């Protein structure tokens, strides 16, 4: 199939999933066209069947807001015609599903029919999409998609609760390429450079937005390091960074916390991590938790949204109510204090991650494409 993939090209989970999906589909013989405003961060290798088409939005002083949707739908029309793209898969409803629908209508005027698959990722539904400013347009573009998927049962339930949806929503969970996370326990894992032999390594990866509750990460770590030697690795950039740097200084733990910034090599950091913290306010899935589990890192998380579908309480880690840093600390210490238990949780985390192996999940998208095309 010739598939157009629209996504955010940034470090956000939806862009990562879209990129990994496109790359795997290309390995399975499909021709993939990424259409977005920058080359996706995890797309380092373009090949004969992986293409990237940049959406350019020229600046014009009249516009207070540059019209990205318009530029995107025009680019979609051009690329579908030029490359004979058969199906468009848009990741994150806002504004991608809306722009794709406009492209589809423009193409129909020329007798070209291209169906749209929309994948809902989380904040496009929970935090942003359900805002009254966007809700009518988001509802419309979901209902006008030819197929709709959500990355967890929880997100499907949220979508049906928050919007008036007439379409069937398929749950297709996020996935992981387990091959990439084989560095766990390998000699090139640089643990010795990051911590002393007796120190436990705690890790958090996110876009450091308020929804991630990164202050809770610091609070839990602060409590842990009072009880046992530990270091905290922070990966990601975002609006809360300055606040948490200050929080570390105020608590006197700045020398125990390493900020890595954005990274494309999280497997190299996860390979020496003992515990992953994800205390999010809301999380449709928690791709970062799955990436940690794939590296054999147990997860201490909140129980919000789709996280319980990924991190299994008492097996791959523990879940607590949002904001309950006392319970999170208790759970973290329980795992970290007992090396045998830590090893059991590490093994379990890796086993649970196997359920999300891309070889099991990507065929589900292929089946949806085939089914959607057969209905055209
Ligand atoms: O808001 C974010 O954290 C980024 C957002 C995105 O743009 O990808 O993440 C959402 O999609 C990911 C991939 O499906 C999920 O793993 C995240 O749980 C989800 N984030 C939220 O629901 C907050």
From TrEMBL:
InterPro entries: Glyco_trans_1, Glyco_trans_4-like_N, Glycosyltransferase_grp1, Thiol_BshA. One of its GO terms (molecular function) is glycosyltransferase activity. Residues 196-351 form the Glycosyl transferase family domain. GO terms for biological process: bacillithiol biosynthetic process. This is N-acetyl-alpha-D-glucosaminyl L-malate synthase BshA. Gene3D superfamilies: Glycogen Phosphorylase B. Residues 11-180 form the Glycosyltransferase subfamily 4-like N-terminal domain.
């Amino acid at each position: 199939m010739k598939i157009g993939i629209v996504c955010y090209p940034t470090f956000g989970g939806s862009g990562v999933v879209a990129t990994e999906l496109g790359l795997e589909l290309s390995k399975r013989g499909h021709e993939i066209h990424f259409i977005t405003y920058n080359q996706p961060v995890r797309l380092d290798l373009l090949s004969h069947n992986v293409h990237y088409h940049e959406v350019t939005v020229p600046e014009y002083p009249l516009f207070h807001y540059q019209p990205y949707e318009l530029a995107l739908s025009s680019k979609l029309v051009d690329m579908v015609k030029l490359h004979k793209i058969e199906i468009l898969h848009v990741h994150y409803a806002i504004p991608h599903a809306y722009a794709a629908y406009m492209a589809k209508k423009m193409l129909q005027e020329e007798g070209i029919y291209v169906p749209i698959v929309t994948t809902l990722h989380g904040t496009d539904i929970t935090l942003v999409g359900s805002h009254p400013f966007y809700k009518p347009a988001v509802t419309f573009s979901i209902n006008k998609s030819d197929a709709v998927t959500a990355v967890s049962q929880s997100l499907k339930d949220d979508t049906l609760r928050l919007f008036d949806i007439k379409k069937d929503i398929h749950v297709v969970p996020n996935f992981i390429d387990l091959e990439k996370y084989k560095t766990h326990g390998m000699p090139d894992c640089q643990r010795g450079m990051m911590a002393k032999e007796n120190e436990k390594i705690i890790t958090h990866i996110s876009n450091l937005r308020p929804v991630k509750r990164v202050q809770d990460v610091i609070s839990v770590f602060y409590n842990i390091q009072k009880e046992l030697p530990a270091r905290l690795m922070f990966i990601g950039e975002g609006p809360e960074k300055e606040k948490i740097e200050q929080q570390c200084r105020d608590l006197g733990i700045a020398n125990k916390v390493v900020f890595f910034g954005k990274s494309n090599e999280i497997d190299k950091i996860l390979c020496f991590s003992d515990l992953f913290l994800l205390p999010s306010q809301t999380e449709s899935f928690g791709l970062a938790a799955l990436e940690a589990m794939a590296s054999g890192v147990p997860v201490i998380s909140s129980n919000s949204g789709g996280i319980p579908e990924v991190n299994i309480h008492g097996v791959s880690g523990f879940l607590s109510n949002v904001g309950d840093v006392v319970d999170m600390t208790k759970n973290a210490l329980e795992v970290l204090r007992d090396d045998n238990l830590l090893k059991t949780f590490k093994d379990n985390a890796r086993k649970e991650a196997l359920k999300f192996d891309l070889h099991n999940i990507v065929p589900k998208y292929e089946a949806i494409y085939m089914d959607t095309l057969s209905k055209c």
